[in-house]
Amino acid sequence: MILAVWGKSLAYVCFLTLLLRGVTGKYNKNTRKSLPAMPKLITQHGYPAETHTVATDDGYILTMHRIPYSPLSNSTDTARPVVFLQHGLISSSVDWVIMGPGNGLGYLLADAGYDVWMGNARGNMYSTRHNKLSAMLPTFWSFSWHEMGVYDLPAEIDYILTNTTQKSLRYVGHSMGTTMFYVLMSKKPEYNAKISRMIALAPVAFLRNTKSPFASITKLVPSGVSKQNGAI
Ligand SMILES: *[C@@H]1O[C@H](CO)[C@@H](O)[C@H](O)[C@H]1NC(C)=O
Ligand SMILES: *[C@@H]1O[C@H](CO)[C@@H](O)[C@H](O)[C@H]1NC(C)=O
């Protein structure tokens, strides 16, 4: 029994080490160098790609990436149904296209006739700018998925609907991308009217029943961050 518990804990520690190495380590730097950045990652496959920036009400400048249409479709000017893809924890818009055409959800949806928009939550590699704060300041990082739901999503959704002159969009969230959505809809329910369909991949609503050792790591998060985080 004790051995099993130790084995499990060891597995978690190994996983965490690999995860941290992936975020900060040499491995990730080399991998990153060999991949073109967005939006070239998309255009290298012959798909059109756009970069848009939008400021949130609390000053964060977010980057969104877009595949407006697929080269497999013939016309470029018809209004396409809009789909918005929101990545999960420690991720970015790259998630949706890294697998390449025929596999990445961004390409598959573009091929199916959608106008594909991909968000980047505050603090990820594409969204580290702010109207006043430098990303070197701790105050820049004083947020959780509460702010991502209350500020980031409304700014992005409103920007997309204005740009495409459409009334609603389809929302696909992965993991934290679903948590942000639930925060938005519980705090600003009027946004329901702007979503025609929501698809939750690996949804996360509450963490309080989590038994994984990871849950105890969240207790190490400074209280200013975790206090605002109603889900924990
Ligand atoms: C595009 O046009 C070609 C030739 O008219 C046609 O064969 C093809 O099915 C069209 N593709 C799509 C996705 O509509
Ligand atoms: C949407 O964004 C594109 C690219 O920035 C721009 O050319 C276009 O004018 C915008 N459309 C509207 C309706 O704002």
From TrEMBL:
Q: Name one GO molecular function term.
A: hydrolase activity
* Top-rank taxon: Eukaryota
Q: Does the keyword Oxidoreductase apply?
A: no
**Residues of the Partial AB-hydrolase lipase domain:** 39-99
- The residues forming the signal peptide are 1-25
Q: Which Pfam families match?
A: Abhydro_lipase
Q: Which InterPro entries match?
A: AB_hydrolase_fold, AB_hydrolase_lipase
Keyword Ribonucleoprotein present in the record's keywords: the answer is no
What are the recorded Gene Ontology BP terms? lipid catabolic process
UniProt entry keywords in alphabetical sequence: Glycoprotein, Hydrolase, Lipid degradation, Lipid metabolism, Signal
Q: Which family does it belong to?
A: Belongs to the AB hydrolase superfamily. Lipase family.
Query: Could you tell me which PANTHER family the record lists for this protein?
Result: LYSOSOMAL ACID LIPASE-RELATED (PTHR11005)
Q: What is this protein called?
A: Partial AB-hydrolase lipase domain-containing protein
Protein source organism: Cryptotermes secundus
